[in-house]
Design brief:
By secondary structure, the chain is α+β, with helices and mostly antiparallel strands. It contains six helices and four strands, in the order αααβαβββαα. It has two domains: 72 residues; 64 residues, no CATH class. Helices cover 52% and strands 15% of the residues. The chain has a four-stranded mixed sheet. The longest helix has 26 residues. It is elongated, with a radius of gyration of 22 Å.
Length: 161
């Protein structure tokens, strides 16, 4: 089955939280299945899951009926995704909002790699722009770098202001 994470699952930490929620759901599902087989009343309280876990499980259930085996397959897919996904770090001058994170992750998955996991960091000393690290590569589009590269031109620019 094809599997893609929603853009709200951005980092390795988000993926680990999702994986733990799905494992909890699979365990709950197994217990409920056994209760139905032996005619024991089901739990009255529903299992509390994160909205993203609910979305992923619901989307998985649309591909095939939810069974113990299909939930095991979902867990295997998530674990494989976690092991194989490339990871990149984006450093911004301020903490990124959830909307900005989702937008940047969507762009990265569309233009770089559909399985990329993106970790966000912030460092006020870059002043603006961003620094992107992926593996051993670093791409610096920060305002600080631009100022330092053009420090000889800065007095001339300030005279014109």
């Amino acid at each position: 089955m094809s599997f893609a994470l929603p853009d709200a699952v951005a980092s390795s930490q988000d993926l680990m939280a999702l994986l733990l929620d799905v494992k909890r759901y699979a365990e709950w599902f197994r217990h409920e299945s056994i209760k139905k087989q032996v005619s024991v009343a089901s739990a009255k309280e529903a299992l509390q899951l994160s909205p993203i876990a609910v979305e992923v499980i619901r989307d998985w259930g649309k591909q095939s009926a939810l069974t113990n085996e299909s939930l095991d397959e979902l867990i295997k897919n998530l674990e494989a995704y976690q092991k194989q996904a490339p990871v990149m770090t984006i450093t911004l001058a301020a903490p990124a909002s959830r909307g900005l994170k989702t937008t940047l992750v969507g762009w990265c998955r569309k233009n770089i790699a559909p399985t990329v996991l993106v970790t966000f960091d912030f460092n006020a000393t870059i002043l603006g722009g961003m620094v992107v690290r992926s593996g051993s590569h670093m791409y610096d589009w920060s305002v600080r770098r631009a100022i330092l590269e053009n420090r000889n031109k800065l007095p001339e620019v300030l005279k014109r202001v």
